[in-house]
Amino acid sequence: MTLAVAPQATPVSSLESLVRRLKEGAHAWVKVPLAERLALLEELRRGYHAIAEPSVRAACQAKGIDPESPIAGEEWLAGPFIVLRNLRLLVESLKDIQRHGVPYIPPSRLSTLPDGRLCARLYPANLLDSTLLMRHVGEVHFQPGVTAANLREHQASFYRRPHEGRLCAVLGAGNVNSIPPTDCLYKLFVEGTACVLKMNPVNAYLGPFLEQAFAPLVRRNVFAVVYGGAEEGSALVNHPDVDEVHITGSDKTHDALMWGPPGPEAEARRARNEPLLKKAITSELGNVSPVVIVPGPYSDGEVRYQGSNIAGMVANNASFNCNSAKLLVQPREWQRRGQMVDEVQTALGRTRVRSAWYPGAEQRWRQFTEGRKGLRLVGTPGKGELAFALVPDVDPFQSQDRVFTQEPWCTVLSETSLPGADDPVAFLEQVVPFLNDKVWGTLCATLVVHPKSLKDPAVKAAVEKAIRELRYGSVAVNNWPAAMFALGSLPWGGHPSSSPQNIQSGMGWVHNTYMLEHIEKAVLRAPLTGFPPSPWMPGHRGLATLSRRLADFELAPSWLKVPAIAAAAMRV
Question: Which domains does the chain have, with CATH numbers?
């Protein structure tokens, strides 16, 4: 088995020459022609596919997963599949730039929202693409001022107006192994910046695999990997030759870099808007991710399906995802409210408890569960493991309760309710200000809506209004926003209402292979139920095989591969 061994910390003294070399490479990088960039991307695709299996085995070892078990498929999906798909879509976008000047969006995919803003339908791009998430539709809502006539002016600005060569310090995420490489690919191929990636100590074992897969970029002095903790990270981001910073992590890390250690001095700097770090900074910083059940005529089977869907949003990756379901919001008097919680609990019982491999998880789990009335625990944890915890009926008027203000970052799902039973319109009118003003984070939210309810024009209008008004960078209807993260073509990031002083889930976008700018949010619409069920649903027996086949598909898409993928998807 490949060992999940982290390299030693990079000596701070060696950063000087490394950063200088990358800054020189950045000046050359901006002049590389499109044909050469395309050849590089094809080389990177082959390189990443070559390290897929050993990197997954290393991740399984680090997270306490049997690499031959179905759950190992989570690491294939959240690692190689997403990276290979991202690389493939970047190839398609650069080919579009060769032909059209920008990544091409057919005029038939553009529409105008009721508030006058532009909407672009991006997923599926074609019939073969639609086999990944059948009957799903993904779209982007733009900020005011972007129109069908000027959309090209808000795409791929680096390829239309190149800068002189910039270097970005990327502080990598420790939880999901596709995040560090895709963050760097975005900076390199969408924004045109060279990257020095500091691995998070939690998954520093991934670094050597990235160095191998991205060797063509290393040789060009536009990509390098360094290792270490806070000292090395601080030295890197404050280096004078580093032009900008990208962080995937916590808001606490962002604020410490911007304003200094917590305390009166940091708060005074924040109030004066005098940051310590005077560089452009983008970030993705987590979320108390809500799932809202809009009342409707649900059958027992539909409640069961969505209960399993929500359970999968909790269990996946031991709940160490920024988009893991953390807050279930339901109508207070809805007759199926208790049944939904029961179905989530039952579905969680179909998967094993997980190793609490992310540092501090056990302490956070206790903070969210101790003293809670009606607490439900699922599973029998062994040493180093945590049970799934359901915290029902949290008072929504206790706005300082940590379930609304802090991301648990462990296997905890809380449930709360707002007044209402059978009136979706009145319920949604309460949901939007509650989530926008009381629940921390701006990254992603899910609305579960019955299709029969949408046949009522008033309900449909209320749902669309809620989608537009929710201050989240991603809004999913009837599905997990992680699907939006995985697609790659849709932008991923916090809502643009965030500011450095109130950073919430961060600022800026990644993925976004259409290279769009002035984005307001992404939206993914899905059926209420489906077959085969989503791969993250607990107990999926074919997950490992399915995930491997999807990764192979992204290297070389073909209709001939679809039957084998479908067969694995149906092994539930």
Answer: 12-107+156-284 (3.40.605.10), 289-497+518-525 (3.40.309.10)
Q: For residue 379, what are the β-bridge partners?
A: none
Name the strand (E) or helix (H) holding 487: helix 482-487
0.85 cut: is pTM over it? yes
Would the pLDDT of 2 be above 90? no
Model confidence over 96-153: pLDDT tens digits? 999 999 999 999 999 999 999 999 999 999 999 999 999 999 999 999 999 999 999 9
Give the mean model confidence (pLDDT) for residues 445-450.
98
AA identity, residue 122: L
Q: Crossing angle for the helix pair 179-189 and 34-63, nearest 10 degrees?
A: 170
CA separation, residue 120 to residues 104, 137, 384, 468, 523 (Å): 11, 11, 46, 14, 10
> What's the CA gap between 132 and 242, in Å, rounded?
39
Residues 565 and 546: beta-carbon distance below 8 Å: yes
Question: Tens digits of per-residue pLDDT, 198-239?
Answer: 999 999 999 999 999 999 999 999 999 999 999 999 999 999
Look-up: residue for tokens 């809202």? 292
Cβ–Cβ < 8 Å for 39, 91: no
**Interval 515-558: pLDDT, tens:** 999 999 999 999 999 998 899 999 999 999 999 999 999 999 99
pLDDT per residue as tens digits for the range 242-254: 999 999 999 999 9
DSSP secondary structure code for residue 571 in this structure? -
Write b or e for each residue in 26-46: b if 16 or more Cβ atoms lie within 10 A of its Cβ, otherwise e.
beebbeeeeeebbebbebbbe
**CB 546 within 8 Å of CB 535:** yes
* Percentage of the chain exceeding pLDDT 70: 99
**518 in the Ramachandran plot: left (φ > 0), alpha (ψ -120 to 50) or beta?**
left
CA 208 to chain centre: 23
Peptide bond before residue 532 is cis, with ω within 30 degrees of 0 = yes
Amino acid occupying residue 364 = R
pLDDT attached to residue 572:
76
Look up residue 493 and give its two tokens: 């990031």
Q: How far is CA 289 from CA 36, 174, 249, 325, in A?
A: 41, 19, 15, 5
Task: Note if the bond before 144 is cis, omega within 30 degrees.
Answer: no
CA distances from 382 to 78, 199, 206, 354, 355 (A): 25, 29, 27, 9, 9
C-alpha 372/C-alpha 193 separation (Å) is 48
Mean pLDDT along residues 324-353:
97
- Cα(494)–Cα(322) distance, integer angstroms: 11
